[in-house]
Structures are given as structure tokens and as C-alpha cells.
Automatic annotation (TrEMBL):
GO molecular function: FMN binding; pyridoxamine phosphate oxidase activity
Organism name: Ferrimonas lipolytica
Protein name: Pyridoxine/pyridoxamine 5'-phosphate oxidase
This enzyme's EC code(s): 1.4.3.5
UniProt keywords, alphabetically: Flavoprotein, FMN, Oxidoreductase, Pyridoxine biosynthesis
Positions bound to substrate: 8-11, 66, 123, 127, 131, 191-193
Catalyzed reaction equations: pyridoxine 5'-phosphate + O2 = pyridoxal 5'-phosphate + H2O2; pyridoxamine 5'-phosphate + O2 + H2O = pyridoxal 5'-phosphate + H2O2 + NH4(+)
Gene this protein is translated from: pdxH
Domain Pyridoxine 5'-phosphate oxidase dimerisation C-terminal: 172-212
């Protein structure tokens, strides 16, 4: 067995104090997202999306956040994918933003709701053409005998839609996660990290400091 116990580092970039917290968690998330983007982190909008299947088995995968506001957090996917099947059974999800270089992470829980076809179409039309073709070519989460099958499907779609606009697939769309909680984590020296949990209570947010 490989021993990894000596792989560690101190977190020294700064703390998070209660006096710095806004009343609304979205304001702090937006501030941290802006800072992650300006720090030129790789894929600052990537998040780990957690879902649970009908047997209670959790699954995680990385998806890209495409929009956020007071209405929620938006991502897009194949509607036949494993994550979509899980959401159809249980729409409670978790999202984790791991901004390692800033010694920060944000964990959000909430309920995922399907976007309208109009919302999905608006975003799909803005995607690069190859990304649109990729959506048509991939039966997401299905088993493939070889990569060449996927590449062949892509080329077939490229020929099929060689002229004109590429339509929105009827099996492709998006979700908006309406948050119930936000947890903000800032690394600290001596493993004395700062953690603050926002929980929705009616129209307001209750804020508690958590032990690291």
C-alpha cells in the first residue's frame, strides 16, 4: 500500500471572518467566483455535481456552471444521461466548487428543476458548432464498444447538418438548481479553517460558523 500521510501543506492565504459575510450568500459566491476568474484559475466555473440513484448510491461528476442569479444555478446536459435519470427520481443535488489555488471551496445543496425548451435553445444556439454536433453524436452514459463508434457518430452528424443551423436535440436541455444551503470554506493555518453555513429559513438565511 502506498503511504500518502506526509503529503500536506499549510493554508496561509488568509481567513474568512463573520464581519466579512453579506446577508445573502449569493453575494459572497459572486465575489469569490469573480476572484477565481481574475486569478486565472483553470476552469473556475467547473463544479462537482452530486446525485443519488434509486438505491441511495451517490455519484459525482464535473459539469460547468453556465449561469447563476437569485433564481438558481444553471447547467446543461443530455436528458438521458445518468445524472438526469437520478434527478428524475430525486431532484436533491449537491454542487461543490473546488478552488484549490485560492484555498477555498463552496458547497451548495438544492433542488434541480428542468429548464424550459426556450432557455435550452437559447444556450444551445450560442455553443460552438462542434459542441452542438457533439451533443447530437453522444448518447450520454450509454455503453460504447470503442471510441471509433463515437467518432463515427460525430462524422455522421457533421454530414447530416453540413448546411444551415443545427437544431436543438429533443434529448438535450438544462437544469436550474434552487439552493437550500451554501457552505463557504476558507483554508487556515494549523488546520484552523473557516467554515460558514448559510441555510434557508423562509425568505431569510441563517448563518452559522462550523468547526473545521
Amino acid at each position: 500500500m502506498r503511504d500518502l500521510t506526509d503529503i500536506r501543506r499549510e493554508y496561509l492565504q488568509g481567513g474568512l471572518r463573520s464581519s466579512e459575510l453579506p446577508q445573502q450568500p449569493l453575494a459572497l459566491f459572486e465575489r469569490w467566483m469573480d476572484q477565481a476568474y481574475k486569478a486565472e484559475l483553470m476552469d473556475p466555473t467547473s463544479m462537482v455535481l452530486a446525485t443519488v440513484d434509486q438505491n441511495g448510491q451517490p455519484f459525482q461528476r464535473i459539469v460547468l456552471l453556465k449561469q447563476f442569479d437569485e433564481d438558481g444555478f444553471v447547467f446543461y446536459t443530455n436528458l438521458g444521461s445518468r445524472k438526469s435519470q437520478h434527478i428524475a427520481e430525486n431532484n436533491q443535488v449537491g454542487m461543490l466548487f473546488p478552488w484549490h489555488d485560492l484555498e477555498r471551496q463552496v458547497h451548495i445543496t438544492g433542488r434541480a428543476e428542468r429548464l424550459s425548451n426556450m432557455e435550452a435553445l437559447k444556450y444551445f444556439a450560442s455553443r460552438p458548432r462542434d459542441s452542438q454536433l457533439g451533443a447530437w453524436a453522444s448518447n450520454q452514459s450509454s455503453k460504447l464498444s470503442a471510441r471509433s463508434v463515437l467518432e463515427g457518430s460525430f462524422m455522421k452528424m457533421k454530414d447530416k447538418f453540413a448546411k444551415g443551423e443545427i437544431p436543438l436535440p429533443d434529448f438535450w436541455g438544462g437544469y436550474r438548481v434552487k439552493p437550500d444551503s451554501f457552505e463557504f470554506w476558507q483554508g487556515g493555518a494549523k488546520r484552523l479553517h473557516d467554515r460558514f453555513l448559510y441555510q434557508k429559513t423562509g425568505a431569510a438565511w441563517q448563518v452559522d460558523r462550523l468547526a473545521p
